């Protein structure tokens, strides 16, 4: 932690829990390979050569290898059109050897990101970015969770945070982070308030929260005096210099529980991605067996 920071909150560290999830995924992947000959495979698609995105993709590929998950890397030039990206994602969706697809986001500004996401087969949407995945989260139906919100829920569960009846304030409205995080909290019987950087009276609203999820994409945006004493603070932001969306020093002196950046939400995101890739491979293998048997 930064020097001189007075930390009274307990840290919600995701590293150990994520490692356990990856180990379990590796065991299941090996069992699937032994019983069916199928190795789960995650295809990653990167448009352009942004250093941060390229680093994230390499990290996910390395973690995939540790979990016994095969990886396929598709790197497209930054000038790729929406139609070309959609064609690539459609091809991967139709490839029976690929079980999960990850489109690294953000994509270049000229691409229709939503159109690209919707080209991913929902059965392979292990990052939980399609409208099908969002609807499943909203309605409590089977489907893949958006990885960061899903990872947040697992972290809250691991630290025995009471969610039912709690007031959760989500700061951020991204379709793959803020919005699904609120849906998952609501499904667990929290009372959810959505806010964002333009919300009038934001500090006063945050001060009413038992659980704060910061996903606004601005470094040190949430200040310590915004928080109710004893609040649980989930910092889902990651900004230049390993800084989250919450001013850690201030918040850690007020909160009861807080996620560090890095080492909090980040590891959970990747772990859930790998877990859901194995889920997808198992489901697709079962469907293939049923189809051969004439049962599908």
UniProtKB/TrEMBL annotation:
UniProt-listed InterPro entries: Aminoacid_DH-like_N_sf, NAD(P)-bd_dom_sf, THF_DH/CycHdrlase, THF_DH/CycHdrlase_cat_dom, THF_DH/CycHdrlase_CS, THF_DH/CycHdrlase_NAD-bd_dom
Single Gene Ontology BP annotation: purine nucleotide biosynthetic process
CDD domains, A to Z: NAD_bind_m-THF_DH_Cyclohyd
Annotated NADP(+) binding sites: 172-174
Pathway it works in: One-carbon metabolism; tetrahydrofolate interconversion
Gene Ontology CC terms: cytosol
GO molecular function, one term: methylenetetrahydrofolate dehydrogenase (NADP+) activity
Domain Tetrahydrofolate dehydrogenase/cyclohydrolase catalytic, chain residue ranges per copy: 14-127
EC number: 1.5.1.5, 3.5.4.9
Keyword Lyase found: no
Reactions that this protein is recorded to catalyse: (6R)-5,10-methylene-5,6,7,8-tetrahydrofolate + NADP(+) = (6R)-5,10-methenyltetrahydrofolate + NADPH; (6R)-5,10-methenyltetrahydrofolate + H2O = (6R)-10-formyltetrahydrofolate + H(+)
Domain spans labelled Tetrahydrofolate dehydrogenase/cyclohydrolase NAD(P)-binding: 146-284
Keywords assigned by UniProt, alphabetized: Amino-acid biosynthesis, Histidine biosynthesis, Hydrolase, Methionine biosynthesis, Multifunctional enzyme, NADP, One-carbon metabolism, Oxidoreductase, Purine biosynthesis
Function: Catalyzes the oxidation of 5,10-methylenetetrahydrofolate to 5,10-methenyltetrahydrofolate and then the hydrolysis of 5,10-methenyltetrahydrofolate to 10-formyltetrahydrofolate.
HAMAP family: THF_DHG_CYH
Family: Belongs to the tetrahydrofolate dehydrogenase/cyclohydrolase family.
Subunit comment: Homodimer.
Name recorded for this polypeptide: Bifunctional protein FolD
Annotated source species: Kribbella antibiotica
Source species taxonomy: Bacteria, Bacillati, Actinomycetota, Actinomycetes, Propionibacteriales
Designated gene of the protein: folD
């Amino acid at each position: 932690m930064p020097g001189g920071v007075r930390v009274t909150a307990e840290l919600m560290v995701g590293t150990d829990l994520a490692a356990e999830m990856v180990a379990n995924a590796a065991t299941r992947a090996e069992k699937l390979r032994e019983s069916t000959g199928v190795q789960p495979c995650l295809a990653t698609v990167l448009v352009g050569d942004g250093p941060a995105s390229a680093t994230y993709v390499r990290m996910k590929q390395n973690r995939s290898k540790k979990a016994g998950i095969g990886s396929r890397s598709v790197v497209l030039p930054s000038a790729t059109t929406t139609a070309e990206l959609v064609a690539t994602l459609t091809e991967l969706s139709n490839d029976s050897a690929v079980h999960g697809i990850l489109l690294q986001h953000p994509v270049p500004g000229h691409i229709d990101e939503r159109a690209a996401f919707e080209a991913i087969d929902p059965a392979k949407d292990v990052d939980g970015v399609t409208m099908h995945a969002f609807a499943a989260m909203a309605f409590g139906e089977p489907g893949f969770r958006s990885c960061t919100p899903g990872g947040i829920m697992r972290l809250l569960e691991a630290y025995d945070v009471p969610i039912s009846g709690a007031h959760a304030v989500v700061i951020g409205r991204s379709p793959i982070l803020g919005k699904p995080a609120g849906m998952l909290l609501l499904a667990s019987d929290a009372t959810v308030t959505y806010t964002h950087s333009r919300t009038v009276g934001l500090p006063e609203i945050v001060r009413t929260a038992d659980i704060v999820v910061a996903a606004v994409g601005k470094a040190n945006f949430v200040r310590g005096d915004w928080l109710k004493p004893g609040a649980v603070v989930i910092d889902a932001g990651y900004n230049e210099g390993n800084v989250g969306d919450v001013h850690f020093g201030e918040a850690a002196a007020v909160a009861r529980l807080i996620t560090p950046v890095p080492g909090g939400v980040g590891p959970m995101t990747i772990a859930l991605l790998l877990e859901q890739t194995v889920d997808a491979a198992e489901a697709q293998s079962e469907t293939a067996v049923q189809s051969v048997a004439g049962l599908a």
